Amino acid sequence: MIGRAALDGIDVDAPIATLDDVSFRYPDAADVVLDRCTWSIDDGAFVLVAGRSGSGKSTLLRTLNGLVPHFSGGQFGGSVVICGDSAIVHGPKVMSGHVGFVFQNPEAQMLAGRVDDDIAFALEQRGTPVPTMRKRVEELLDLLSIAHLRHRDPATLSGGERQRVAIAGALALHPRLLALDEPTSQLDPWGAEDVLAALTRLNEDLGLTVIVAEHRLERLLHRVDGVRWIECNDDTQSMLAPRDFAARIDPIALPAITRLGVQLGWDPVPLTVKDGRRMAQHVALPEAPPRHAIAPGDSVIAARGAGMQHGKRWILRDVDLDMHQGELVAVIGRNGSGKTTLLRTLLGHHPLATGEVTIAGRSSTRIGAADIGREVGYLPQQATAMLFAETVRDELLYTARQRGKPVDVESMLLLVGLHGKEDRHPRDLSGGEQERLALAIMLTGSPAALVLDEPTRGMDAWRKAELVSILDDYRKRGGAVLMATHDVELVAETADRVIMLGDGEIIATGSPSDVLGGSLTFTTQTQLVFGADWLTPTDVLGALDNRPA
C-alpha cells in the first residue's frame, strides 16, 4: 500500500521534505540556478512548482531524489532531507525509495518492451521477491487504469498512456513522495485530464505527497494545496494558496478564466469554469463582433488526397490542405490522431501512399526532403533532435550555411530570449531554452514557411506571448505557418484556420470559433463560460471596454 498506512514508525506530522539554504550552480555555468532556497513540504500535500522557463523548477525537483548534484555535478550548498534521510549523503540509490520521479519525457525512463515489465524494472533491480513484485505491478496497473495495456510495447502507447505508465513505474518502490516535471506538456486535453485525475486520486485516496512542476495551470491550479513560485537567483517567494497566488502573480501566467477574473476584479477569483460561470452571470456582453478573415496570399504548401501508410495500417487518409502566405493554420487532435505524421509527410520525411503535396507549386516528390528543408523551417516536438553543435552560436551558423543566407546571431538570440548564451552548449540549456533555440534555428535564413510541432512545449506564458509576436511579425512579411498543438488557448489567439484530425482524417476545418466552439475538450475556458463566439479573455475585455456608456 502506498501512502500513510505503510509508514510504521514514522512521524506523519513532521514535514516529509525539508530544504535548508539550498544553492546550486551547474558545471561551467556563471550563474547559480538555486539561490539559498529554504522550503518545508508537508506530508500528504499536493504542491505546484511554477516559474518562468529556466528558473530552476526542474533543478529543484531533482534535488529531492539526489540527481542534483550526484548525477549532474556542479557546486551544491545547503541540505535536502527527505523522510529523515539526507539526499546529499545517500544519493539517488537510497532516495529512489523515498521519491518517485517522472521526467519531462516519459519515454526517457522506459527500458522494457512491455508495460508490466517496465513497471517491474525497479523492483527487479532491488531483488524484490517475485510474489511481491507481481502483486505490486497488478495493483499499479489497476490504480492507474492501465491494466488493459499490460502486454503493450510502451513505444506504441499514446502520450497520456505513456505518462501513466511512467507514473506507475515511479510508484513501484512505494515512495512517499512523487515528483513530476511538466507531466502534461505533451498531452492532449483528454490525456492531461486523465493524468491529473490519477494524481489527484493518489493524493486524496492514498495520502501520497505530490509535487508537480508545470506551465499549463488551467487543469491544475484548482487541484493543489499550494503554489511555490520560483524565480532565477531569487527565493523570496513563499508557498501561496492558489487564490493568493492568482492575486499576486502577473495575470499572463494564469489560466484564462482566472486571468479574466483578476482583471475584472471578481471576488473570489475563479479557479474553474464552474466558478467562472457563476461570476459571469453578472456580466452583460454586447453581441460578439465579427472576426475579420485575412486575405491570403499565394499558396506555399498544398496537399490533395494525401495518404500515408505504415505496413497495412493507414496513418493518414485523403487529406486536403492549403497554406497561403500570411496565414497561420493550426492542426489539433488527440495524441495519436496523425498530427506529427501529417507535418512530416508534408515535409517529405514520410513517403506518400496516395495523393500529392506541392511546395510553392512544385511537387514534393521531385524536390526531396533536403531541398524542402531549405525552404521550410521545421520545429519538431523534440527540440533536442535539432541540436548537435558544440555551442548555441554554431547551431545558427550551420543552418545559415545550409540555407545559403547570413544570420546575425546576437539579434536572433535576442529575439528568442537567449541573448548572452551564445557560447553555452545546447544540451546544457533548460527544456524551455532548448525549445527557443530550436525556434531560432528554424527562423534562420527567413524560410518561406514554418512548420511547428508543439512549439509551446516547456514554454512559459511570457515566452509564449513572445512567440505569438514573432509569428505575427513573420506572417506580416509574407510567411506561412502550420502549427500542430494541444494548446487551444494559443490556437484561439493566433490561428486563422483550424484543422481537427481524428484517426488520420480531417474531421473538421474552419475558423477557430467554428471548430473550437461546441467542443467538450478542444475549447477555451472563455468559450465554456461565455459561449462559442468569445474565444479569449482579450475578446471579452475588449467588448466590455467598447460598450456604449
End-to-end C-alpha gap: 63 Å
Q: Into which percent range does the helicity of residues fall?
A: 25-40%
Radius of gyration, in angstroms, nearest whole number: 24 Å
Number of helices, where a helix is a run of at least 4 consecutive DSSP H or I residues: 21
What would you say about this model in short?
This protein is of the alpha/beta class and 549 residues long.
Give structural attributes.
6-stranded mixed sheet, 549 residues, single chain, Rossmann fold, alpha/beta, 3 domains, 21 helices, 35% helix
Layout of secondary structure:
Elements: E1 17-25, E2 34-41, E3 46-51, H1 57-64, H2 67-70, E4 75-82, E5 85-86, H3 87-95, E6 99-102, H4 115-125, H5 130-143, H6 159-170, E7 177-181, H7 189-206, E8 209-213, E9 226-230, E10 239-240, H8 242-248, H9 256-264, H10 273-280, E11 299-310, E12 313-324, E13 328-332, H11 339-346, E14 354-359, E15 362-363, H12 364-367, H13 369-375, E16 376-379, H14 392-403, H15 409-415, H16 431-443, E17 449-453, H17 461-476, E18 480-484, H18 488-494, E19 497-502, E20 505-510, H19 512-516, H20 525-530, H21 537-545
Helix pairs in contact: 4-5, 4-6, 6-7, 9-21, 14-16
